[in-house]
Structures are given as C-alpha cells and as structure tokens.
C-alpha cells in the first residue's frame, strides 16, 4: 500500500533518548492515559505548549501528528 502524498513529503521525526525519574514517568503516563495519548505524545504536547507560551515555538514546526490509525485509502 502506498502512503498518502502528504506523508511522503514529511521529514523524519527526530528520536531522542530521555531519562526520567520513575515517579515522574508514572505521573506522566497516568496523565497521558487520561488524555488518551501515549506518554511520547504527551511529552511532545507539553513541550510544544511550553515553547508556544514562551514565544519560542518555531514557525517551521509542523502540526502535531494526528492521533489514531491513519485513514484507510481503500473504499469499503
């Protein structure tokens, strides 16, 4: 199956190793679950919000990736 055209143009997402205190991670994971996000998505959401509030979010930063499964390109 071929990815949609907009996915072909997206740059690869940057991967980083993050070390957290286990209690901080547990609290973050609970919060993420309440917001129906993964812990990774919650971290990105919070970092983007903090950058925006500080006036430091680059204009070139794309939108948050859509949550959930990608839409099916096949018709039922």
Radius of gyration: 16 Å
Share in β-strands: under 5%
Mean pLDDT over all positions: 84
Oligomer: single chain
The residue fraction in helices comes out at: 40-55%
Give the H and E element order: HHH
- Protein structure class: mainly alpha
* Strand elements, count: 0
Number of helical stretches of at least 4 residues: 3
Distance between the termini: 15 Å
Taken from the alpha-carbon principal axes, the silhouette is globular
Structure at a glance:
With about 80 residues, the chain is mostly helical.
Task: Please provide a written account of the structure.
With 76 residues, this protein is an all-alpha fold. The chain has a domain at 18-53. Helix content is 43%, strand content 0%. It is built from three helices and no strands. The protein has helices spanning 5-9, 22-34, 39-53. Helix 2 crosses helix 3 (39-53). The protein is globular and about 45 Å long. The protein starts with a helix and ends in a 23-residue tail after the last helix. The mean pLDDT is 84.
What are the salient characteristics of this protein?
76 residues, single chain, mainly alpha, 0% strand, Toxin-antitoxin system HicB family antitoxin, Ribbon_hlx_hlx, Arc_rbn_hlx_hlx
